Amino acid sequence: MISISGLQKSFGSNRVLAGVDLEVGRGRSMVVIGGSGTGKSVLLKCVLGLVTPDAGRILVDGVDATAGDRDAFLARFGMLFQGAALFDSLPVWQNVSFRLLRGALKRPRAEAREIAIEKLRRVGLSPDVADRFPGELSGGMQKRVGLARAIAADPQIIFFDEPTTGLDPIMSGVINDLIREIVTEMGATALTITHDMTSVRAIADEVAMLHGGTVRWTGPVAQMDASGDAHVDQFIHGRAEGPIAALR
Ligand SMILES: Nc1ncnc2c1ncn2[C@@H]1O[C@H](COP(=O)(O)OP(=O)(O)O)[C@@H](O)[C@H]1O
Ligand SMILES: [Mg+2]
Q1: CA 77 to ligand 1 centroid distance, Å
Q2: Which of 5, 60, 99, 144 is deepest in the core (most CB within 10 A)?
Q3: How big, in percent rounded to 5, are the helix, strand and coil portions of the chain?
Q4: pTM, 2 dp
Protein backbone atom coordinates (compact mmCIF):
# COMPACT_ATOMS: atom_id res chain seq x y z
CA MET A 1 0.00 0.00 0.00
CA ILE A 2 2.89 2.32 0.81
CA SER A 3 6.20 1.97 -0.97
CA ILE A 4 9.06 4.31 -0.10
CA SER A 5 12.42 4.10 -1.85
CA GLY A 6 15.58 6.15 -1.60
CA LEU A 7 13.85 8.90 0.36
CA GLN A 8 16.18 11.77 1.28
CA LYS A 9 15.54 14.98 3.17
CA SER A 10 17.91 17.52 4.66
CA PHE A 11 17.22 20.78 6.46
CA GLY A 12 20.26 22.94 5.67
CA SER A 13 23.27 20.91 6.79
CA ASN A 14 21.10 18.59 8.90
CA ARG A 15 20.74 15.38 6.89
CA VAL A 16 17.66 13.76 8.40
CA LEU A 17 16.65 11.09 5.87
CA ALA A 18 19.55 9.65 3.90
CA GLY A 19 17.88 7.07 1.68
CA VAL A 20 14.93 5.47 3.44
CA ASP A 21 13.37 2.32 1.94
CA LEU A 22 10.14 1.06 3.47
CA GLU A 23 7.27 -1.14 2.31
CA VAL A 24 3.93 -1.34 4.10
CA GLY A 25 1.60 -4.05 2.84
CA ARG A 26 -2.13 -3.51 2.42
CA GLY A 27 -3.96 -4.03 5.71
CA ARG A 28 -0.69 -4.36 7.63
CA SER A 29 0.36 -2.42 10.70
CA MET A 30 3.88 -1.04 10.43
CA VAL A 31 5.52 0.62 13.41
CA VAL A 32 8.59 2.79 12.88
CA ILE A 33 10.79 3.09 15.96
CA GLY A 34 13.79 5.31 16.55
CA GLY A 35 15.20 7.84 18.97
CA SER A 36 13.99 11.41 19.33
CA GLY A 37 15.03 13.52 16.36
CA THR A 38 15.80 10.59 14.05
CA GLY A 39 13.28 11.80 11.48
CA LYS A 40 10.19 9.73 12.22
CA SER A 41 7.80 12.67 11.95
CA VAL A 42 9.61 13.99 8.89
CA LEU A 43 9.15 10.59 7.22
CA LEU A 44 5.42 10.67 7.92
CA LYS A 45 5.14 14.27 6.70
CA CYS A 46 6.92 13.32 3.46
CA VAL A 47 4.30 10.63 2.76
CA LEU A 48 1.50 13.13 3.39
CA GLY A 49 3.19 15.74 1.21
CA LEU A 50 3.58 18.19 4.09
CA VAL A 51 7.35 18.09 3.61
CA THR A 52 8.89 17.94 0.12
CA PRO A 53 11.62 15.28 -0.18
CA ASP A 54 14.97 16.08 -1.79
CA ALA A 55 15.09 12.71 -3.53
CA GLY A 56 13.36 9.35 -3.62
CA ARG A 57 9.98 7.96 -4.51
CA ILE A 58 6.81 7.46 -2.51
CA LEU A 59 4.00 5.37 -3.97
CA VAL A 60 0.65 5.02 -2.25
CA ASP A 61 -1.42 2.20 -3.73
CA GLY A 62 0.84 2.41 -6.77
CA VAL A 63 0.32 6.14 -7.31
CA ASP A 64 3.04 8.76 -6.89
CA ALA A 65 2.22 10.64 -3.68
CA THR A 66 3.37 13.96 -5.11
CA ALA A 67 1.33 13.76 -8.32
CA GLY A 68 -2.37 14.23 -8.97
CA ASP A 69 -5.27 15.56 -6.93
CA ARG A 70 -4.17 16.41 -3.36
CA ASP A 71 -7.72 16.39 -1.96
CA ALA A 72 -8.46 12.94 -3.35
CA PHE A 73 -5.07 11.71 -2.13
CA LEU A 74 -5.50 13.01 1.43
CA ALA A 75 -9.10 11.80 1.61
CA ARG A 76 -7.73 8.26 1.90
CA PHE A 77 -5.75 9.08 5.05
CA GLY A 78 -6.63 9.41 8.70
CA MET A 79 -4.15 10.91 11.10
CA LEU A 80 -3.75 10.90 14.85
CA PHE A 81 -1.42 13.77 15.67
CA GLN A 82 1.10 13.77 18.46
CA GLY A 83 -0.60 15.34 21.48
CA ALA A 84 -4.10 14.90 19.94
CA ALA A 85 -3.95 18.46 18.46
CA LEU A 86 -7.65 19.22 18.85
CA PHE A 87 -9.19 22.57 17.97
CA ASP A 88 -9.86 24.19 21.38
CA SER A 89 -12.61 26.46 20.12
CA LEU A 90 -14.69 23.69 18.52
CA PRO A 91 -16.93 21.26 20.41
CA VAL A 92 -15.81 17.64 20.39
CA TRP A 93 -18.22 16.51 17.68
CA GLN A 94 -16.97 19.19 15.28
CA ASN A 95 -13.40 18.12 15.99
CA VAL A 96 -14.28 14.52 15.17
CA SER A 97 -16.19 15.39 12.01
CA PHE A 98 -13.86 18.24 11.04
CA ARG A 99 -13.18 16.85 7.59
CA LEU A 100 -16.81 15.82 7.08
CA LEU A 101 -17.90 19.43 7.48
CA ARG A 102 -15.75 20.80 4.65
CA GLY A 103 -13.79 19.96 1.50
CA ALA A 104 -13.76 16.76 -0.51
CA LEU A 105 -15.43 14.67 2.22
CA LYS A 106 -18.23 17.13 3.07
CA ARG A 107 -21.52 15.66 4.35
CA PRO A 108 -24.75 17.27 5.55
CA ARG A 109 -24.25 18.69 9.07
CA ALA A 110 -26.71 16.35 10.80
CA GLU A 111 -25.07 13.32 9.20
CA ALA A 112 -21.60 14.56 10.17
CA ARG A 113 -22.79 14.85 13.78
CA GLU A 114 -24.26 11.36 13.72
CA ILE A 115 -21.00 9.93 12.40
CA ALA A 116 -19.08 11.81 15.11
CA ILE A 117 -21.26 10.31 17.83
CA GLU A 118 -20.87 6.82 16.35
CA LYS A 119 -17.06 7.20 16.20
CA LEU A 120 -16.97 8.58 19.76
CA ARG A 121 -18.87 5.50 20.89
CA ARG A 122 -16.32 3.32 19.07
CA VAL A 123 -13.49 4.81 21.12
CA GLY A 124 -15.42 4.41 24.38
CA LEU A 125 -16.89 7.91 24.78
CA SER A 126 -20.59 8.52 25.44
CA PRO A 127 -22.72 10.87 23.27
CA ASP A 128 -22.77 13.57 25.97
CA VAL A 129 -19.06 14.19 25.30
CA ALA A 130 -20.01 15.43 21.80
CA ASP A 131 -20.99 18.92 22.94
CA ARG A 132 -18.15 19.45 25.37
CA PHE A 133 -14.94 21.31 24.52
CA PRO A 134 -11.47 19.73 24.39
CA GLY A 135 -10.28 21.81 27.36
CA GLU A 136 -12.89 20.12 29.57
CA LEU A 137 -11.52 16.63 28.89
CA SER A 138 -8.69 14.61 30.45
CA GLY A 139 -5.60 13.77 28.39
CA GLY A 140 -6.82 10.22 27.81
CA MET A 141 -10.24 11.43 26.64
CA GLN A 142 -8.61 13.96 24.30
CA LYS A 143 -6.55 11.16 22.81
CA ARG A 144 -9.72 9.13 22.26
CA VAL A 145 -11.30 12.13 20.51
CA GLY A 146 -8.20 12.42 18.31
CA LEU A 147 -8.56 8.74 17.48
CA ALA A 148 -12.26 9.18 16.67
CA ARG A 149 -11.30 12.04 14.35
CA ALA A 150 -8.63 9.90 12.65
CA ILE A 151 -11.23 7.26 11.75
CA ALA A 152 -14.18 9.60 11.08
CA ALA A 153 -13.98 9.32 7.30
CA ASP A 154 -13.29 5.55 7.30
CA PRO A 155 -9.77 5.97 5.91
CA GLN A 156 -7.90 3.19 4.11
CA ILE A 157 -4.61 4.33 5.62
CA ILE A 158 -4.12 5.64 9.16
CA PHE A 159 -1.05 7.34 10.59
CA PHE A 160 -0.41 7.48 14.30
CA ASP A 161 2.30 9.88 15.48
CA GLU A 162 3.46 8.97 19.00
CA PRO A 163 -0.03 7.81 20.09
CA THR A 164 0.86 7.29 23.76
CA THR A 165 3.16 10.24 24.47
CA GLY A 166 2.06 12.04 27.62
CA LEU A 167 -0.30 9.29 28.80
CA ASP A 168 0.11 7.18 31.94
CA PRO A 169 0.94 3.46 31.41
CA ILE A 170 -2.63 2.27 31.93
CA MET A 171 -4.14 4.82 29.54
CA SER A 172 -1.34 4.01 27.08
CA GLY A 173 -2.39 0.36 27.22
CA VAL A 174 -6.02 1.30 26.58
CA ILE A 175 -5.12 3.48 23.58
CA ASN A 176 -2.76 0.82 22.16
CA ASP A 177 -5.45 -1.87 22.39
CA LEU A 178 -8.02 0.45 20.84
CA ILE A 179 -5.70 1.26 17.94
CA ARG A 180 -5.01 -2.42 17.31
CA GLU A 181 -8.73 -3.34 17.41
CA ILE A 182 -9.82 -0.50 15.16
CA VAL A 183 -7.10 -1.06 12.57
CA THR A 184 -7.98 -4.77 12.44
CA GLU A 185 -11.74 -4.27 12.18
CA MET A 186 -11.40 -1.52 9.54
CA GLY A 187 -8.89 -3.54 7.54
CA ALA A 188 -6.87 -0.34 7.29
CA THR A 189 -3.18 -0.01 6.56
CA ALA A 190 -1.49 1.59 9.57
CA LEU A 191 1.79 3.42 9.97
CA THR A 192 2.67 4.29 13.55
CA ILE A 193 5.75 6.10 14.74
CA THR A 194 6.76 5.78 18.36
CA HIS A 195 9.57 5.34 20.82
CA ASP A 196 7.24 3.47 23.22
CA MET A 197 8.10 -0.24 23.12
CA THR A 198 4.76 -1.18 24.71
CA SER A 199 3.01 0.38 21.72
CA VAL A 200 5.25 -1.54 19.34
CA ARG A 201 4.35 -4.90 20.85
CA ALA A 202 0.65 -4.04 21.03
CA ILE A 203 0.21 -2.48 17.57
CA ALA A 204 2.82 -3.83 15.16
CA ASP A 205 2.71 -6.57 12.56
CA GLU A 206 6.03 -5.29 11.22
CA VAL A 207 8.66 -3.05 12.75
CA ALA A 208 11.24 -0.81 11.12
CA MET A 209 13.98 0.93 13.02
CA LEU A 210 15.09 4.32 11.77
CA HIS A 211 18.64 5.31 12.67
CA GLY A 212 21.26 7.48 11.00
CA GLY A 213 18.83 8.48 8.27
CA THR A 214 18.09 4.98 7.01
CA VAL A 215 16.06 1.92 8.02
CA ARG A 216 18.56 -0.07 10.10
CA TRP A 217 16.39 -3.14 10.49
CA THR A 218 12.93 -4.22 9.47
CA GLY A 219 11.00 -7.41 10.09
CA PRO A 220 7.97 -8.98 11.77
CA VAL A 221 7.49 -7.89 15.38
CA ALA A 222 7.98 -11.53 16.49
CA GLN A 223 11.55 -11.39 15.17
CA MET A 224 12.43 -8.09 16.80
CA ASP A 225 13.87 -9.62 19.97
CA ALA A 226 16.20 -11.81 17.93
CA SER A 227 17.03 -9.23 15.26
CA GLY A 228 20.78 -9.66 15.76
CA ASP A 229 21.12 -5.90 15.29
CA ALA A 230 22.94 -4.13 18.14
CA HIS A 231 21.07 -0.85 17.49
CA VAL A 232 17.68 -2.57 17.72
CA ASP A 233 18.74 -4.42 20.88
CA GLN A 234 19.95 -1.27 22.56
CA PHE A 235 16.75 0.55 21.67
CA ILE A 236 14.26 -2.10 22.74
CA HIS A 237 16.04 -2.64 26.05
CA GLY A 238 16.65 1.07 26.63
CA ARG A 239 20.33 0.59 27.38
CA ALA A 240 22.58 3.62 27.83
CA GLU A 241 25.56 1.62 26.49
CA GLY A 242 25.69 0.57 22.85
CA PRO A 243 26.19 1.77 19.28
CA ILE A 244 23.56 4.53 19.62
CA ALA A 245 25.21 7.55 21.20
CA ALA A 246 23.21 9.00 24.09
CA LEU A 247 24.42 12.51 23.27
CA ARG A 248 22.45 13.66 20.29
N1 LIG B 1 10.53 21.97 9.26
C2 LIG B 1 11.75 21.71 9.73
N3 LIG B 1 12.77 22.58 9.55
C4 LIG B 1 14.01 22.31 10.00
N5 LIG B 1 14.35 21.19 10.65
C6 LIG B 1 13.39 20.29 10.87
C7 LIG B 1 12.03 20.49 10.43
N8 LIG B 1 11.30 19.41 10.78
C9 LIG B 1 12.14 18.58 11.42
N10 LIG B 1 13.39 19.09 11.47
C11 LIG B 1 14.56 18.44 12.06
O12 LIG B 1 14.61 17.12 11.58
C13 LIG B 1 15.07 16.22 12.59
C14 LIG B 1 14.08 15.10 12.78
O15 LIG B 1 12.88 15.61 13.33
P16 LIG B 1 11.61 14.70 13.61
O17 LIG B 1 11.24 13.95 12.38
O18 LIG B 1 10.57 15.59 14.19
O19 LIG B 1 12.14 13.68 14.71
P20 LIG B 1 11.35 12.52 15.48
O21 LIG B 1 12.02 11.24 15.07
O22 LIG B 1 11.57 12.80 16.93
O23 LIG B 1 9.92 12.59 15.06
C24 LIG B 1 15.30 17.07 13.84
O25 LIG B 1 16.69 17.37 13.90
C26 LIG B 1 14.48 18.31 13.57
O27 LIG B 1 15.02 19.42 14.22
MG1 LIG C 1 8.13 13.06 16.09
Answers
A1: 22
A2: 144
A3: 40, 25, 35
A4: 0.93
